[in-house]
Design goal:
alpha/beta, seven-stranded mixed β-sheet, five-stranded parallel β-sheet, 2 helices, 16 strands
Length: 181
């Protein structure tokens, strides 16, 4: 029973990937509207007030996009949840965790060893800089510097950078700021 569910979900993801690849080629606001409409129709938790840039690809239907999310051009989005008011720069890759491929056995090709897709969580009001690679969750109100590689969970309210990404600074919240989840 579990195997048939996995195959069914995999088939659904394959169809979803194909349509999103096709729709990723439509330029401008009209293209973004088309991508949003399709994703909103297929994905349970997808907010209409989001922007999906040209060339952005999605690989899993188990994805959630919050209100006011901006996904820049050429992003590659795996199995994840992105909180409201979060910005993803161009070329950001959110992978479905860091265990997608097993590689323990040298006698079996890596592609045949399986792996596990994990749902990554990006908190609300985050900024992920251009070209960052995210393989772990990012806490609310955090910033990931451009080109960084996130392999461990990032706490809320910090700036991280580097490969692997490390905390550079804690962000002090302004006394008048209000963030609703």
């Amino acid at each position: 029973m579990l195997a048939s569910f996995a195959v069914g979900q995999s088939s659904r993801d394959s169809v979803f990937q194909s349509f999103m690849q096709f729709l990723s080629l439509a330029p401008g606001k009209i293209g973004s509207y088309q991508r949003n409409a399709f994703a909103h129709w297929v994905i349970k938790h997808w907010h209409w007030n989001s922007y999906i840039g040209f060339g952005a690809l999605f690989s899993h239907t188990d994805t959630a996009i919050g209100e006011g999310v901006y996904i820049g051009p050429q992003c590659n989005i795996g199995k994840c949840s992105i909180g409201k008011d979060t910005l993803l720069g161009s070329g950001v890759h959110i992978l479905s965790g860091k265990n997608q491929h097993d590689f323990a056995r040298s006698d079996v090709p890596i592609r045949d060893q399986g792996g596990v897709f994990e749902k990554i969580s990006i908190g609300h009001n985050c900024w992920i800089g251009n070209g960052a690679i995210v393989m772990a969750s990012v806490g609310k109100g955090s910033i990931v510097a451009a080109g960084s590689v996130v392999v461990n969970d990032v706490p809320s309210g910090v700036i991280v950078g580097g490969n692997p990404a490390k905390v550079i600074k804690t962000i002090k919240e302004a006394p008048h700021a209000t963030h609703n989840e």
